[in-house]
Structure formats: C-alpha cells, structure tokens
C-alpha cells in the first residue's frame, strides 16, 4: 500500500532522530557515504562501532556514534527503500532520507512537514482519550527529537562531555540544559512519591 513507505520513513525519522540528536539540516544533507564502521582498539577489545560524520553548524564536521538500535532502524529503512541492508554496500551518494520515489533526498522543509504531519496524526489518535496529551503532541517540532536525545542520554548517565560532542554544542553550558531538566524531573518524581503521605 502507498501508506506503508510513508509510515516506514516516518518511523525511521522518529527513531533515528531521537537516537542520534541530529539537527534537521544534518538529517536533510546526510548521505550513506557519511556512515563509518570502525574498529575500536582499546582495553575492552576489538569492537566494531558505527558512526556518522555530519556537517553541522558553522560548516564543521563531527562524528556522531550510532547505537545498535539506530543501525537496526537504518537497515530496516534501507530494505524498505529496496536497497541493500548493509549501508556500505549502497551508493555512498544516496541520501540518508529519500523521497518516496527514491529520486533524491528530502529538503529540510519536507522533513519538517513529514514530522509535523506525523505528530498531527498521533494527536488525532489520542484526542478522544487524552485531550491534554493531544494538544502537547500538536506542539511537537523536529527539534523535539534532538531534545529527546539530550534528555534521554543524560537521564541514562551518559557523561555530559560525550553528549556535548554528539550534539555538536560549542559550549558545555548549552548541554547543561539537559542536566538541569533531568534534575528537575528527579525532584518532581520524588515530590510526587511523598505527596500522598
């Protein structure tokens, strides 16, 4: 069905975006040739690790480590596009995110529209059971995926300097927003736990 490729692309955008923290412009310009599979030779042995080089703000390149679930999402998306599941077996010039007809990549504005449409459809689906959640979802933006990445990595104990490098923040103070957000969340959770006493 025609809806299936659209749904698979939306699913990939949501998963990959929230597991990498890439900016909208970075998602739009990324190519399969920017992916890297390298040996990590260190005290933990000879591991293989995926990453993607992205051209970020101020035309600076940075390396973003890719967790296994992000690579699983990418492989599934590549297969859905009719490509080889091995990202390195495909034409390196192919866009990371493509048009449904496979003829080129998506612009920033088109990725924005795809995600906004996805948020709206989700809001409609939950409207009847949770109007407040639906309204919050309607306020969603492409930047939500980046914030999700920052908040989740900090909440899971990833060191702040690692998060800073992955997000491409010049200043550690910018990354500190996520640390403060996590501190506030912990405070609210503990307050709620003891409110009923």
Give the helix/strand layout.
Elements: H1 3-20, H2 24-29, E1 35-42, E2 45-55, E3 61-66, H3 68-80, H4 108-127, H5 131-138, H6 143-155, H7 160-167, H8 172-195
Helix pairs in contact: 1-3, 1-6, 4-5, 6-8, 7-8
Compose a concise summary of this entry.
The protein has 197 residues and is α+β, with helices and mostly antiparallel strands. The protein contains eight helices and three strands, in the order H-H-E-E-E-H-H-H-H-H-H.
What does this structure look like?
Helix 1 packs antiparallel against helix 3 and helix 4 packs antiparallel against helix 5. Strands 1-2-3 form a 3-stranded antiparallel sheet. 22% of the residues are buried. The chain is built from 8 helices and 3 strands. 56% of the residues lie in helices and 13% in strands. Strand 1 and strand 2 form a beta hairpin. It has 197 residues and is of the alpha+beta class.
Runs in which pLDDT lies below 50 for 5 or more consecutive residues are none
The total of helices stands at 8
Task: State Rg.
Answer: 18 Å
Instruction: Find the count of extended strands (DSSP E, 2+ residues).
Output: 3
Structural class: alpha+beta
Distance between the termini: 54 Å
β-strand percent reads: 5-15%
Strand order of the largest sheet: 1-2-3
Biggest sheet, open or closed, and with what strands and sense?
3 strands, antiparallel
Shape, per Cα inertia axes: globular
Look at the structure and give the mean pLDDT: 84
Order of helices and strands: HHEEEHHHHHH
Share of helical residues:
55-70%
